[in-house]
Design brief:
15% strand; 40% helix; 14 helices; alpha/beta; 8-stranded parallel barrel
């Protein structure tokens, strides 16, 4: 049924259907009866999936990645939809419109998306107002923050600190996004010399855990350098990975892809590199940092592979678009089956077990 609905939805422009679908999700979970029914249908409640990560309790490991709920308007929506947590944003200190439309594109043959949204959002103050109205007892919410486009790189640390100070007290953790390909010069901030003062400014601005989100296109040496810096500064963890600027290995016609223009590619085409980065990070830092794996996860089998490779938490966005409303429940149920079949009493016991087995 969802496959048929997806074909109908794909008749509309991607950004238009995004707003319509998100509106429907928020409406279905706005009132208690709707939240109850939605939760009964979509939430996989199983104690084996619960874990405590960087001091925060997560009912289940799969979260909604940043990019869907840019302004924190649906902070109370994601729990009833089956997610164990969510990242809102990316939020910038100043409101900004993002890049000109069209800026979101589908690649159905690859079950992928290309976006060059450009951090379109209403600004940190607006997101803070929404977060301040969160219902008690909901799932953890992370605040993903980025650089305001018009702010020079030299002033980036102060710009990030503004967002951190506004959102940190209202969120369960903060993610510093320096890896989107759609803000000019942003990825340059992943260089350790630029990243150090930026992360320190955020750490000095909040009391909640701070993580950094990196790109899959970093070299292995740069990944190691960021990991070492994260340990040195006392970050809570790393989110790996963001979208990729690469276009190799796609089923979609190359000329069609080229015609779509620049942007970050998400979904299955980034899965192999995302897993590779995760394995490298875990081999480098072990359990000194929490690793959140995102990029191309579609099935419970893939989710299980990420856990064994060292991921304490998982995220998805494109998988939800193509997988439908039951996607999170399917992955969580599949993970619960895997955990019990392999004799694990909890998710945390399985994190990184693939490395131990290889050793």
């Amino acid at each position: 049924m969802y496959a048929l609905l997806l074909k109908v939805m794909f008749l509309l422009p991607p950004e238009r259907i995004h707003h319509l679908a998100f509106g429907a999700m928020k409406l279905s979970t706005r009132f208690a009866p709707g939240r109850w029914v939605t939760s009964k249908l979509l939430v996989a409640q199983d104690p084996v999936l619960a874990s405590r990560v960087f001091g925060v309790d997560f009912p289940s490991p799969l979260g909604m990645a940043a990019g869907f709920d840019k302004n924190a308007e649906g902070a109370d929506t994601w729990g009833p939809l089956g997610f164990g947590y969510a990242e809102i944003g990316t939020v910038t200190a100043q409101a900004q419109p993002g890049n000109p439309a069209p800026r979101l594109f589908r690649l159905p043959a690859d079950r992928a998306l290309i976006n060059r949204m450009g951090f379109n959002n209403h600004g940190a103050e607006a997101a803070a107002r929404y977060l301040a109205t969160r219902r008690p007892g909901g799932i953890p919410i992370g605040a993903n923050i980025g650089k305001t486009k018009i702010v020079e790189a030299a002033d980036a640390a102060a710009d990030y600190a503004i967002s951190a100070k506004l959102l940190g007290p209202l969120a369960d953790f903060v993610v510093v996004n320096v890896s989107s390909p759609n803000t000019p010069g942003l990825r340059d901030l992943q260089a350790v010399d630029s990243l150090r003062p930026l992360l320190q400014a955020v750490l000095d601005s909040v009391t909640v855990p701070v993580l950094v989100k990196i790109a899959p296109d970093l070299s292995d040496e740069d990944i190691d350098a960021v990991a070492d810096l994260a340990v040195e500064l006392g970050l809570a963890g790393i989110v790996a990975t963001n979208t990729t600027i690469r276009r190799d290995g796609l089923r979609t016609d190359a000329e069609q892809v080229a015609a779509l223009g620049a942007g970050g590619l998400s979904g299955p085409p980034v899965a192999d590199r995302s897993l590779e980065v995760l394995r490298r990070l875990y081999a480098r830092v072990g359990d000194r940092l929490v690793l959140i794996s995102v990029g191309g996860i579609e099935t419970a089998e893939q989710a299980w592979e990420r856990v064994l490779a060292g991921a304490s938490l998982l995220q998805g966005f494109t998988g939800f678009i193509y997988g439908g409303p039951l996607w999170a429940r399917r992955i969580h149920r599949g993970l619960a089956v895997k955990l019990r079949a392999h004799g694990y009493a909890s998710l945390s016991e399985a994190v990184g077990a693939g490395h131990t087995a290889r050793a």
